[in-house]
Amino acid sequence: MDEADGPKANGAGGGGGKDRDTAVSERRFRFLVAGYAVSSYGTFLNMVALNLFVYETTGRALAMGLFMAVRLASGFVAGLAVGGLLARFSAKSIMLWANVGQGSVMLVLILAPESLVTGALMAVSVVIGACGTLFMVALRSSIPEMVGEDRRAWANSLSITGRSLAMVAGFASAGVVVSLVGYTAAFLLDMATFVVCAVTVALLPIAGGKGSASAVGAPGTEKAGKAGKSEQAEKSEKSEKGGPRWRPVAFLALAAAPGLGLMVALRGVDAFGSSSHNAALPIYSTSLDASNPAVFVSAFWCVWALGNIGAQQVIQRYAQRTGRSVGALGFGYGTVVMSAAFIAAFAGFPLAVTAVIALIAGAADGLTEVAYTSHLQTLPATLRGHAFGLSATFENLGFGVGMILVAAALDRFSPLAVVGWSHGAAIVVAVVFLLRVAGLRRRAERTGRAGLRKEEAVEGRPDRGDRDGAEVSRG
Description:
Elements: H1 15-58, H2 61-88, H3 91-111, H4 117-147, H5 152-203, H6 212-216, H7 221-228, H8 231-240, H9 249-255, H10 260-288, H11 294-322, H12 328-345, H13 351-376, H14 381-409, H15 415-459, H16 469-474
Helix pairs in contact: 1-2, 1-4, 1-5, 2-4, 2-14, 3-4, 3-5, 4-14, 5-11, 5-13, 8-9, 9-14, 10-11, 10-12, 10-14, 10-15, 11-13, 12-13, 12-15
């Protein structure tokens, strides 16, 4: 991001200059989200079109499972590597080449002769899985540098809204596009969406990744940043620069904040639960209307998206009014509500009630997404990419293992039973997480009260009662 994006301390414009800089940064981020939404549409379009094409080409359902497994495995590996890549390359270059890679591999599939189609499909699964994770982690980890720390919740909510709209459009139009214009045209459209996003990234100044500290601060901020770095951040920098010992930087990132490791683990268990309702929805829909099972699935996801988008609007207004993000408690409570709603969606309620349940599930899903992303973005820049990468690895692992176990379980048990124990596991871990957060807060309050009494005794300043536990513990 160029100089105009950064706040100008003691500048001639004062507060007006900072407001203009903020407006420029937000306008640029909106353009980036628009490009991201277009490419997300391509991602969800090819998720349907490619699966149909794989089945039509091979004639085997097992091939579809293998295609998805390779895609998830590629995302798993990319999640482990992306933190190191962000330490060496800019977030802009990673996002740019991730889109170029996805567009190029779609072109390879389009041009591949019939004898090489199977190999081209495997290449598509590898590149799409890896590049999708690289782009997502690079985007989320660099948002604080792009829009500022105080606008994280707004930016996260905006990007999630764009992705939710793209998901609905991609899923809803995939069948129509394939049936009307065929697979080749669908793949060309998919390739075009990645080109649009790549052009958007290329034209915009984007901070983050290598050199992010200098991109967002004045020349003197480097020394100040070094003085304020955590011990974990210093350790991670030494390992990235080739220190004498290898250090697991991604796991140091989880140790940088109390309870963060449990939070990422909950995200993985939540992904495991998500695999259950994704696999069970077509089966449940067929039991409701065997002649046209796609109707219920499409309607469910459309209502879910409406709830998600509505939650984003509420979160954006809350962040603008209060200047605060949702927080870790929002993530825990949101996970409980979301998981309970998905279980209830398979309980056989009337369609009107199920629509309300889907709306609640979407809203809770939107809340957890913003809360989780915003919380990880509070980590130091040197650790943030590693944390998001490890999180993506856990999510891919949870979803991949879940798809295998759920597919086997659905042959023997009802959708309600399978979704119940899958999302039930997420609820149990979420409750443990909430108890952990509550315990940390009580400890912070006790530390704050003890620190305040010590300060009053030493300084004789009973008027300093405006500091809360979190501020004292940071001091």
